[in-house]
Amino acid sequence: MRRRKVVFTQRSRDQLRTAKTWWIDNERPVGILADEIEQAVDFLALLPGAGTPYPQAEITGLRRLYLRRLSSHLYYTFTQDLVTIRAFWHARRGHGPFSHG
User: Fold this and answer.
1) Which domains are present in the chain?
2) Distances (CA, A) of 6 to 22, 28, 34, 67, 82
3) What is the 8-class DSSP label of residue 26?
4) CB 99 within 8 A of CB 57
5) Rounded to 5 degrees, what angle do the CA atoms 51, 53, 55 make?
6) Which of 30, 39, 56, 68 has the highest Cβ tally under 10 A?
7) Residue 101, CA atoms < 13 Å, CB-side half-sphere
8) What is the pLDDT of residues 37-62, one digit of tens each?
9) 23 in Cβ contact with 33 (< 8 Å)
């Protein structure tokens, strides 16, 4: 099984930084956040097609992977060689990160 390189857009890095700050400010075990992201990256590097297609955004091939322990999604696209994490978004917001809702 091929392992793809995984990269984060500036947008997704900013969203993860904001989430980390929230976890720290609210005295949550920030290690859970780090562990879930690390596990998701490892999973997507091997099986990027496993996420759910997200056609609501105007980004061709956009998919999302639900992170149960965080109640959040990673939104991403992939090619033969690369997985690009495009957003980190809490699932309960009622709209996705690429909508205007």
Assistant:
1) 5-91 (3.30.2310.20)
2) 24, 26, 15, 17, 6
3) T
4) yes
5) 155
6) 30
7) 10
8) 999 999 999 999 999 999 888 899 99
9) yes
